[in-house]
Please model this.
Amino acid sequence: MHKSKIKIGVNEYPFLRVNTLIIGSGAAGLNAAVQLFEHGIEDIAVLTEKWGGGTSNNAGSDKQTYYRLAADDKEGDSVTDMAKALFKGGAMHGDIAMIEAATSLQAFNHLIASGVPFPHDEFGRYPGYQTDHDSKGRGTSAGPLTSKFMFEALAKKIVNYHIPIIDQHQAIQLLIDDKDGKRSIIGCVAIDLSKKNKGKESVVVIQADSIVMATGGPGGLYEASVYPESQRGSMGLALDVGAQACNLTESQFGIASVKFRWNLSGSYQQVIPRYFSLDKSGVEHDFLNEY
Model:
């Protein structure tokens, strides 16, 4: 990453130049950075509002599930079968589903080699279990903090590889080059939050040949959400410059606490629960029964 200054009008701003910029420091963003580095693309940087502040490192449920091709021979799984299962959900194109299925074990083994403690037996086999809408035992879990373990293992690699972390920076605008009707990403504008909070000039301009958006889902979309206040997501940056909203997974609605951040997963929904509201006079209304 090269650092210099850029003059826009009468003002001068910090100017960073990097081949690939990853926006977001959760497990997905760190994995993208590590995989790029291990495949020879070393001029990369991770831009994040708060190192360690993402959902991956701060979320938990009774059993976080990691989904990959069933590795047990009893399941009789195949790349095509898994791709069909992903495609059947209606939120993913077939080619993307095929790529995800074909490389899922490779990605899983990479996490194991990185130190994520997925459970295995004495023979080195990693068992799986069936999860929602799954016909095979493709699910596995390292417990309630699976994504935290993933973040921690990948963060160690980021540090060991000396991948630059642009901390306390918030991306606010993607930059587009429009030549002869061909639009391409050329960088972004960010705010240095450490300077902004002190009332100083905080604009930073970053030039990048490629940008990886790894900011998670729209955590701030809903008034009441299990996501902590800091989990806002930045998908709008891409939509604002013309990215198509396709291959976006569906939202899952469920029960969760809004004070102590802990999800209530489907495991607890396998009996008929009682959900009720209270009116102004304190009378209970079992609204689930109507459905």
